[in-house]
Amino acid sequence: MQKLLQHKTLLLLLLPAMSLITSCQKEFDPKDYSAYLQGEIINPTSNYVLFCKDNEVIDTLFLDENNKFYKKFDSLTPGMYIYKHNPEFQYVYFDKNDSLTLRLNSKDFDHSIIFSGRGAEKNNFLMNLTVKNIMDETEGYSAFDVSPGKFSKRIDSVHAARTTYYLRNKAIINWSEDFDLYAKAKLDLHFYSLKELYPTAHFVRTDEDVRKKLPSDYYAYRKKINFNDDRLLKYSSFTKYLAIMLNTIVNEPEDEIIPDNKFDKYIDKLNIVDTLIKNPKVKNAIFDNIAFIYLLEDQNLNNNDVFLERYFELSTDKNQHNEIIQIQQAIQNLKYEKKLPEVPLVNAKSEKVSINSIINKKTLMFFWTKNGMAHADAAHQLAAELKSEIPNIDIVSICIDGDQGEWLNIIKKYPAKGIIELRSDDFNQMKDQWIITKIQRSMILDKDGSIVDPFINIFDKNFESLLK
């Protein structure tokens, strides 16, 4: 009797909570695809967040006076999205009717991201996996020093442990099959990338070529990868792995492990993709990416026509051909001994500046962004040292973004004499005309303004010799 009373008492205590849970449960309209995204940015670098799908901006979410944002999407197709707060970005997955609250600190972007609300569990899992992968990459370079057997044993062990972590969360959260595609890709392709990198990284760190010492089944994991799923086409885990894998395949054991002849290797990559990938959408996108990277590499520009002939033979995406042709034409305008096309530039007095009118010495020109101050500081410091060592050169520093007042406040910290500070007044035009796609990009011009080297990194080892 006493146990019966205890059970009745417990049931009476639970009833209000059960009623509350029941009353809070929402019956979702099968035709309702609304979703919510709100959040807070600590230490924001701008006053907005970009919300994107496959790198296309869907909406701009502006921060209020408390650095918070809020957006209701009347209809949002379930799937993977991207949010960007320059210069960083990260992924967020929405199921039907998810309502997510995001909080992050821009000074510790990936490590600070926390989600709450409906749909938070799967996104927090994805971020936890991302952080674990980042830690592997930043702390694990010494792992490449060991023999192939020891390396494989360690990588396979960590992969197995993380797979257990993935399976446990999959069972608890019970996420969708579509989300599982991205979660599994982030898990597996991270370790596959490390295995692809091992032979080259081991050679760089130890000067030992182990490619012929690898077990015969070392690359067996490649057979597990579905290269034809176009949902992964814009997913960095997939695109990063594919780029690393192609580099590995084109550097066969009989070749130099770090080849000098990049031209032939890029044509090899086109041919490999043509054989490996059957889905035309995926294949064309990878062709475009290879062509884009090749055209921006520090390569022999006279080889472009031969490379593009093969690209046009294989690619069936006629619309993308025009963009590749435009890039090639822009690069042709940056050939050796030509002069730079004019683009909108202003000086500290807000005066328009013609780049070709201010060049009268051999000149180094480098670029920086207000959203990457570590690079800006390092580049300015190196430029000042170069000016001190080679006083008969000019140095032009170009900020690619920001308004005039903001830029003037920043350059106060760079008082080095002999550095000409300019600001781009239309970055899109400069990006298209000068092919500015990497902030590390620099140029060297001769005293008459003609181009000496249009594609060089200011931090390259042989950089100084080109200025003398």
UniProtKB/TrEMBL annotation:
<protein>
    <recommendedName>
        <fullName>Thioredoxin-like fold domain-containing protein</fullName>
    </recommendedName>
</protein>
<keyword id="KW-0732">Signal</keyword>
<dbReference type="Pfam" id="PF13905">
    <property type="entry name" value="Thioredoxin_8"/>
</dbReference>
<dbReference type="InterPro" id="IPR036249">
    <property type="entry name" value="Thioredoxin-like_sf"/>
</dbReference>
<feature type="domain" description="Thioredoxin-like fold">
    <location>
        <begin position="360"/>
        <end position="451"/>
    </location>
</feature>
<dbReference type="InterPro" id="IPR012336">
    <property type="entry name" value="Thioredoxin-like_fold"/>
</dbReference>
<feature type="signal peptide">
    <location>
        <begin position="1"/>
        <end position="19"/>
    </location>
</feature>
